[in-house]
Amino acid sequence: MMHSDQAVVRTRWRRMGEYLQATVIIYDPIDFTEPYIRSSMMWVNDPAMVMSPYPGACRERRKASDE
Questions:
Q1: What is the pLDDT of residues 39-67, one digit of tens each?
Q2: For 1, which DSSP code?
Q3: Residues with Cβ < 8 Å from 9, sequence gap 6 or more?
Q4: Is 28 left (phi over 0), alpha (psi -120 to 50) or beta?
Q5: What letters, b where the CB count within 10 A reaches 16 and e where it falls short, cover 50-65?
Q6: pTM here?
Q7: Stretch (H or E) spanning 2
Q8: Which of 29, 35, 48, 63 has the fewest CB atoms within 10 Å around its CB?
């Protein structure tokens, strides 16, 4: 998809019962007259699945604790 250097991408997560839905919204005042919105990728909750934390969040926490 074409986009300008002013494009901003936002991802919103929503839990719907046992499902997780990702909605991606692209704002680009140069190439789009309105936000481009797509909702997709629904996952079923699996309590047995092990998920590692997002690496960026871990680094941010370490920085905050070092201060």
A1: 876 778 777 877 776 665 555 555 555 55
A2: -
A3: 24, 25, 26, 27
A4: beta
A5: eeeeeeeeeeeeeeee
A6: 0.57
A7: none
A8: 48
